Amino acid sequence: MQRKKGRIMVYKIKKHIPESEVLVERDRKVIATCQHLSSYPFVIDRARGEMLTDVDGNEYIDFLSSASSLNLGSANVHINQAIREQLEKCTQYNGGYSYNEPMISYA
User: pTM of the full predicted structure?
Assistant: First the structure.
């Protein structure tokens, strides 16, 4: 159990997380608390497929699929390639002001 500023947070996962704790403490000073739903000081560094790695080098399985937005896993090779190709063409442009073939094809 860990006590932080009057709140008791119970960590059931016993990992070595010194870098994560430093960043979470800094976050509490600069980011609105309503931005987080977390109950564990998980500070993600990178993700590949279904595996997440925190800033302390601990690995976790991404059972949430980043809240279901990454059902194909993180850093998916095919998605990354499509993103790179699109970035070379155009970073973004609002479809409300113009037409574009990818949006029409997708629809």
Answer: 0.67
